[in-house]
Fold this protein.
Amino acid sequence: MAGHFFRYPRTMTVQEIQRIVEQWAPPSIAWDRDNVGLQVGNASETVQGVLVALDATASVVSEARRRKCNLIITHHPLLFRAPRAITTGDSTGRIIQELISGKVSLVAAHTNLDFTQGGTSFALAEALGLERVEFLHRPYRTQKKIVTFVPAGHVEAVSSAMAGAGAGRIGNYDHCSFQTMGTGTFRGNELARPAVGKHQRLERVSEVRLEMVVDESGLPGVLSALRRTHPYEEVAFDVYPTENVDPAYGMGIIGVLRRPVPLRRFLSQVKSALGVPSVRFTGNAARQIRHVAACGGSGSDLLGEAVRQGAEAFVTADVKYHTFHDADGSIALIDAGHYETEYPVVHAIVKRLGNELRELHRKIPVRAASSSTNPIQYV
């Protein structure tokens, strides 16, 4: 109608922003012993601003309060294990007190962010200038297959709704399904209100068997879409586990440099890209490097996979003495620091969350913390 416009709501709660992050990095893919999600605060609080950091330090909390950001998103959990007490006698207790007194909520996205497409290792790969990047190791078998039975005239509506909720995504394709015709039978009791036929009479209906895959984390939403659009009073469906490798989740990355360079030059590129004054490494400094594997943070367990996939160099952190021995002669192993290899994900979070909020027409500022500091110093 003339002169009419829709005014988008400009506010979002902590829980709604947390949901955006977790659609990208589902908690279900995090390590069992990890602690991700809302750590401190009120899920229903309206968010004024978001500050993103690697760690929830006292200086980061102080910056959030100063910049009027009442939600902090960190990579590392403040509460990794259940505390036995929360007091001002230790730094964690003091930080929690500051968060609560300042009405600042804290959300952590840790190993779920490490293991998702575009997450920690992908941000590291971008910083290193790698191309054709893909997961180094894909252990996840989280996909399910949903099978349901739909009257032929309703298949398009049901399949589209399920696809819109996340079903039918395979690699670079979406709306993937398989459909076969068949005959469904049913008889409703005296309380039934069937969409087809009459109650207390055996009905035979032409139906389509509709099959679509979905990530485990998206299953509730897809089932909700199915129930919402299916015409039957009682919706029949089956959910099966699959052995499909889930392309959206994995560990570490492998990619290529635009052109081969000697290891000594690649080491200089790593230091410059990550802002680290020195690195620990083993390998022939004259060897040409083109294929590079990487894992932000502690990724030494992926060394064997990097070797098997033909990487000439592996960039990670927290490498033990004996692991350097294991790599010697087969691959250049580079320890570039835990903070340095994970910090690029802070800007990845800011960029992704900022883009999502703009698409939703929410004017909520999302900033990288300027007070984030590496607790390790170099001399």
Summary: The longest helix spans residues 344-359. Residues 1-8 have pLDDT under 50 and may be disordered. The chain is about 30% helix and 25% strand.
